[in-house]
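G., the chain you wanted modeled:
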Amino acid sequence: MSERSTIYRFVSNAYQMIVAMGMLAATSCGGSTGPTTTSTTTTTASATTTTTAATTSTTTTAPVTTTTTSTTTTSIPVLTGSISVESTPPNTCTATATAPVSCTFVGNASGGQAPFTFEWTFRNPTNGVSVIATGQRVTPTLGCNVSVGVPSFNLTIALVIRAANGASTTVNGTQQIIRVPNNCGIPV
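Predicted structure as C-alpha cells:
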C-alpha cells in the first residue's frame, strides 16, 4: 500500500470517528427540553506525501478540512421554593406596634435560573390587612392596623419567587404571631 493511500485512509477514518462521536453525543442527550446550542468547528490540517526516487525527492502538501457539528441541549430544572422561619426560642414570633417581628422569614429557591427575586405578602385573614416585603430574608413590621386587641393572630403568607429566566412559583404558608403585651390594646 502506498504512503498516499495510507494517509488518505487515516484522514477518512479520522473523519468517520468525528462524525460518529457527534452522533453519539447528540443521541445521549435524551429527550430533555431546554435551550439548544449548535456549534460548528472547522479544522484545517496538512497531509504530506513524500515520494523518493533514486536521486529525486518530491514532497506534495495538500490541505485537509474536517468539519464537525454538534448539538447540545441544556435542561433547566423546574423552579420550586419553600419558606422557613428562624426564631429564638424556636417556633415563636412576636410583634410590637412599631418594630419588626422577632422572627425572620426566609425564602428558599431551587431549580430555575439564578438570580431570584422574592416578594412576600403577609395577610391577616380576619381583617384582610396585608403587609408587603421583598428580599430573601425579611422581618416585617406588623403594626396595630394588622391586628388590635388580640393576644395572638395567624397570618397567611404568600411568597412569589421569580427566576432570571422568567419562571415563577408561589409558596403559601401560615404563621402564628404573638402580640407583645402593652402593644395594640394588649394589657400588661
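Residues 17-54 have pLDDT under 50 and may be disordered.

Shout if anything looks off.
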